[in-house]
Amino acid sequence: CRSGRIWWGVKSEMTAVEGNEGNKFDFETGEKVFVSHGNLLYEATVLHTEVKNTVTRFKIHYLGWKGKWDEVVKADRLRKFTEESAQLKKNLLRKIISPSRVRDRSDPDIGLPAKMRKSHDRKTSAGDGIPPTPAPSSEQGSIALHSTLKRQLIEDWEFITKDHKLVPLPRDPSVSSLLSTWLLSNSRRGIADKACKEVAEGLREYFDIALGTMLLYKFERIQYNQVIHGSAVAVKPSKVYGAEHLLRLIVKLPTLLVKSRASDEKQTLIFSKMNDLTKFLHKNGKLVFLPEYSPAGEDYIAKTGEE
């Protein structure tokens, strides 16, 4: 039974932006395109292409913005400038500004890439100014976090945004191995049913999709690009990142589930398994979470523009 049976409605929200399936085209210098950034699409122009370690990358310029916002991206973040892509852009923006969204729809910075927002607004809207907190419960359930996991989220935020430290990569155990160990633990307790395996596989796949778009602090972006996009071979985030980033995804899941097309029954099932997973992380916290992060170094900090 494929993990998509449970996670299809949730993952579709991300793959519409991050994935470029069926849209794998060559892009030419001067071509107008759409670029995925976070959960939205933005208009841009391809400035030039470059090949590094057999991987083609494109330097793009966001239309209407100064050159300092230009960035180099891989083809999987680009979409052809078609009516279909334009409609997708509208649909994604409509979801962002819907009344059900927590943020006030009068916010003037809605719809802008996180790094383009005004600094005083970016702190909270981009997630760097306040530590992540568990999303509110829904009719289908909620994810309960022990106080030690809440403290982990705060320390994680402080290490990165305040102390300019990074999670050393690759992590051991990785997200992938953590989920496998969780399944093994449940198997020994006689509760590793098929649904549990589906949720674990779906969470692993979803982590690979979501990490680069919603789970990183700005300060971690260079490290992410170096590790994930700087390799000549494909690298899955779930094989490199660990419990610190998995926990960030877990606290976002309630909001993502509410906005997904997953049925109430599937959402309830996922909530149940996620609560079991958080208990596992709490119980094994000293083994899976780092007590201290690594200093980023002056060269890295200079590249980020942080002070």
UniProtKB/TrEMBL annotation:
**Which ranges carry the MRG domain?**
142-293
**Where does the record place it?**
Nucleus
A GO BP entry: chromatin organization
Coiled-coil region list: none
This protein's GO cellular component annotations are:
histone acetyltransferase complex; nucleus
Keyword Transcription in annotation? yes
* UniProt-recorded name of the protein: Uncharacterized protein
- Gene3D superfamilies, sorted: 2.30.30.140, MRG domain
Q: Which organism is it from?
A: Rhodosorus marinus
- Record domain MSL3 chromodomain-like: where: 27-92
User: Keywords of this protein's UniProt record, alphabetized?
Assistant: Chromatin regulator, Nucleus, Transcription, Transcription regulation
Species lineage:
Eukaryota, Rhodophyta, Stylonematophyceae, Stylonematales, Stylonemataceae
Residue segments, region Disordered: 100-141
- InterPro entries xref list: Chromo-like_dom_sf (IPR016197), MRG (IPR008676), MRG_C_sf (IPR038217), MRG_dom (IPR026541), MSL3_chromo-like (IPR053820)
The yes or no answer to whether the keyword Transcription is present is yes
